[in-house]
Specification:
620 residues; mainly alpha; 3 domains; globular
Length: 620
Amino acid sequence: MRRVKRSLRWVGRGMFVALAMATGWMPWGLPQARGAGPVTLAEFEAAFDSLARQKGKTNEPGRLRALFDLQWRQAMSDSPESATYNGYPEFNDRWQDLSPEAIRRQRVGLARTRSVLDGIDVAALDEDSRGYRDLFDAYLRLDEEGARFPSEYLLLNQLQGPQQEIAQTLGLMQATTGRGVEDVLARLGRVPRLLSQATNLLREGAAKGITPAQVTLRNVPEQVLALMPDDASKSPLLNPLSSLPSAATDAERAQWRSRALSTLTNEVYPALRDFHRFLTNHYLPAARTQLACVDLPDGRAWYEHRVRRITTTDLTPERIHEIGLAEVARIRGEMEALRVQVGFKGSLGEFFTHLRSDPAFFHETGTALLAGYRDISKRVDGGLPRLFGKLPRLPYGVQPIPSYSERSQTTAYYQPGSLTAGRPGNFHANTYNLRMRPKWEMEALTLHEAVPGHHLQIALAQEVEGAPEFQRHAETTAFVEGWALYAESLGPDLGMYQDPYSRFGQLTYEMWRAIRLVLDTGIHAKGWSRDQAIRYFLANAGKTEHDVVVEVDRYIVWPGQALAYKVGQLKIRELRTRAEQRLGARFDLRRFHDALLARGALPLTILERRMNAWIAAEER
């Protein structure tokens, strides 16, 4: 998966708040984005009012683009972490405001945005503007539908929340200038306020019965403690100060480090200890024992909305469950055939046990594991021009998952880079407990997380010429994760899966995503227990038991998110088959891939319309 990062970083944010800040001109009285300083709420409101009053007084494509820019800018004012994440430093000295007033203001702002958008004369738009208007409208409608659900109360679980985001966001900051250092120090000093606001939200959510499932929270207090080593100078919260301005004097560097250490020990550590006590003594004991999203207030409607939002389709949970069962049966048949091919005499279940337990399938050190991933990545790089006419400029690297979160994290994730910030993308691999990281899964995982999966698609999206910023950084999960799962199937074209066990790893990963359709809907719509989900997973995939437990707990706390992978992959595969059948000998896989990725991540309904038009054009 990609590091989720915005639409799921803190669940209270909507689609637009989950995106990044515009870089272009800012009309209607707002100062320019870069280096302009924060914009007040009154300035934003005045800018929206001015934009609405321009109806009939200016060209509509320009007014529409101004709306895109303005909404984007406000989104990043509301979500400074996302601005940092995408390489725009304007709000680097602060955190998201989690106060009730800020949350109310974000919901009210949806109606203001809708009013301006509906005032745009669609007939006066050119084709490109109309296409981006439809995208913007689709995202806005999802936010409007979701505004009824109090997702801000679910800001913390084992995979997300302040205990994860504080270190990760600070780690993305660059303290190579005096301003950069001061931003780090200011943001560090505002951690206590952030934790206080988070505590208030979590306390209120617990009082209303809106919490994650208790069983999934067992490692969260430990994650908080990992931010507070006895030697405060070794806290991951100080990582951004490891590279101070080269032009600074030794005295200046010493002063900055002293200020940071003082803030950390005298202000941040006490706040973290308070947060740890609250979680341990109050929040975890009060957390609900039920698992399902449908058990929350208005939970069935909430889950159905999550499914629509994540898949960008009208598929019901029941239909998705049926698709999952059919895919599990199909892939299991392919696994049985491969078991016979390698000469294993036992049952498929016994073959799974063999794959999970034979020491020959595992690296002995984390260094060797990471080296293996880097070797695979470089071999894949060389084959990409055979499948793509356009490749991204942004490089990527392979890094370990940080130790403070590795125990509760999944096998790997991708963290996007930023051309604007000069930061490469990174494929993060989990080196915790190496007997859970088999070699046979490494090729498929690399294809998914790095190239031609997440890195290639997300980096290319950032380079789409003429696209508004909301589309350059869109994280339409069904497209992004569907593409990455589809990318795993490109292994044979790239010289991968020569070893039948690696091919079995690819089948295991596809089975893993098919199982998600069954388990996510099973848990949240059909009343499946956690143990039932774990048993089903173990019976149908070669994943290790620890990985299975981590995965099932992920499905519990992120309802609907796991559906995106297989739903998106099936749609992309359907579109490719349609193109192959209609174009015959004229079908060019490089052109198909380039067309598919040309506009960044799209809702699947809009993607299908675009690709149908591309096929029709190729036929002429």
